[in-house]
Design a protein that fits this description.
Elements lengths: L23 E2 L7 E2 L1 H7 L3 E9 L2 E6 L3 E6 L3 E2 L9 E7 L2 E7 H5 L8 E7 L2 E7 L1 E9 L15 E6 L4 E5 L1 H11 L6
Parallel strand pairs: 4-13, 8-10
Antiparallel strand pairs: 1-2, 3-4, 3-11, 5-9, 6-7, 7-8, 9-10, 12-13
Length: about 190
């Protein structure tokens, strides 16, 4: 997949502030609004997910959490300890944003990361270093199976099997919060 800047993805996705991600009406017409997490738990409707890889593992989250996907951006180092989840800083427009080693955050060893997923958290942005951006996929939420274990962190919403592999469905909000909580004091 080399059609666009990152696979078949355009270089910029619609920007929706992370803290203000839209909710979707329940399909039964009740008018109740459900967030992505609740829709996955209820196995209700369909959703567009951004699928990406870390090593041999495949993950996906609600594409509305994505601000932009960048291929091979220059990420500058920051002086932090060797076990830090902070991979460096990315000059993005007029500001520098922290880029996190998503492989280290999710416990996927040996994920070198070649792409950065720029995410919003309120008015702040963070980057997630990933190996490969697969594509935006439309998924029937009824096909998602419960997580195989309870990690207690609300990060893993469930899993689904494709033709070739297992995809872990993540809560983007929880992933961003986890990065920010575990970040060293660098203004991240």
């Amino acid at each position: 997949m080399t059609n666009g800047p990152v696979g078949n993805m355009p270089s910029t996705a619609p920007t929706t502030p992370h803290a203000e991600l839209p909710t979707l009406a329940e399909p039964n017409g009740s008018g109740a609004m459900l967030r992505f997490r609740e829709r996955v738990r209820a196995r209700t409707g369909t959703a567009e997910l951004l699928a990406f890889r870390l090593g041999r593992e495949r993950f996906a989250f609600d594409v509305r959490a994505l601000d932009e996907a960048l291929e091979s951006p220059a990420v500058g180092p920051v002086p932090v300890g060797g076990a830090s989840i902070l991979a460096g800083l990315l000059r993005h427009g007029e500001r520098s944003i922290p880029v996190f080693d998503t492989g280290r955050v999710l416990g996927v060893p040996g994920a070198p990361g070649a792409h950065v997923l720029v995410m919003r958290s309120g008015s702040r942005r963070i980057g997630l270093l990933v190996d490969e951006v697969d594509d935006v996929i439309t998924l029937d939420l009824g096909a998602i199976k419960p997580p195989p274990f309870d990690a207690g962190d609300d990060l893993l919403l469930g899993v689904t099997w494709g033709t070739d592999d297992l995809t872990a469905i993540l809560d983007a909000r929880a992933l961003i919060t986890l990065c920010q909580q575990r970040a060293p004091e660098t203004g991240a």
